[in-house]
Specification:
- This protein is of the alpha/beta class.
- The chain starts with 5 loop residues before the first helix and ends with a helix.
- The protein is built from 17 helices and 11 strands.
- The strands form 2 sheets. A 6-stranded mixed beta sheet has the order 7-6-8-9-10-11, with helices on both faces. A 5-stranded parallel beta sheet has the order 2-3-4-1-5.
Amino acid sequence: MIERTLAQNIIQIVGRKKAIIIIGARQVGKSTLLRMMFGEQKDVMWLNGDDLDIQELFSNITSTRLKTIIGNNRIVVVDEAQRIPDIGLRLKLITDQMSDVQVIATGSSSFELSGKINESLTGRKREFQMFPLTFQEMVNNSSFLEEIRMLPHRMVYGYYPEVVSNPGDEGAILKELSNSYLYKDILSLDNISKPDKLVRLLKALALQIGSQVSYNEVGGLVGLDSKTVEKYIDILEKSFIVFRLSSFSRNLRNELKASRKIYFWDMGIRNAVIGNFLQVENRQDTGSLWENFVIAERMKALCYQDRFVASWFWRTRQQKEIDYIEEKNGQIKAFEIKWNPKKADAKCPEAFLIAYPDAEYKVISQENIEEFLLF
């Protein structure tokens, strides 16, 4: 069993009289993580919000009945909590009136779950985001050398736990994940009026990783106006499928100020969306895959370690570009991401050096990836 980094983050909060909320896409391992942490304990109650009887149970429940149902259990786990009406109020009842009970809720859609719990649990919760497996977790599970050897494979099939645990069946598993789970939550939302175009939009975004995305242009390709494109991308982001990077701009008039790139949290899902599982040596998008992989893994690692940094990309109207920018406490760090180690001596654009003379600059390739992802 692969040890998850998030376990240590969560265990520090248990018993502190706060509801623990774990959000993340379906099948990233939320339930498995909790089974690993608490499965041996006898005083744990396991509930699944996908079950109709659990939804009905919570529909008009009182604190008195909740106490009766929970009994002597000291931990209550509610999977897929966003499926339960008024779940925020139910969790608040437990947190406020049963101080010796630790409630843990998981959800696969922050779009739904956050709206249902934020107001009710203000000041009473601690929220964690869970991702598919990470480069760091796999290094800890095997070795750095082994995971370096597996990089081309990870860039194609990604890090979903079931994919990693079933070598040889990666393509079939990813197709099932993308068809059965990927759209299960987002296409059930009431404000998705054109689900077929949402699917087309996701495919269009998958083909543009590493490139700037114009909502107008993408909308024209899939038949949506720019406002609907932005709304759908927001839903995809809150369903943990994609994330956005905005452009960094401080000093130069010719810096792009309202541009964005869109990346996928998992490369296997991205490749399943476009139906391309060719190996990296046979692909034309290897550079983009590597860029997406490295940036996603960096952001996962930062999230798990509670490192609060702002992230961007940088580009000018003259096509001068840096793949990834971070800023923390006024310190700017710039990273160019190259799959081919022979291009690892790429120079920092002169315009950036002049505008930000105190910024650090580094090229990230296969040969120094540990400096960027292991910390």
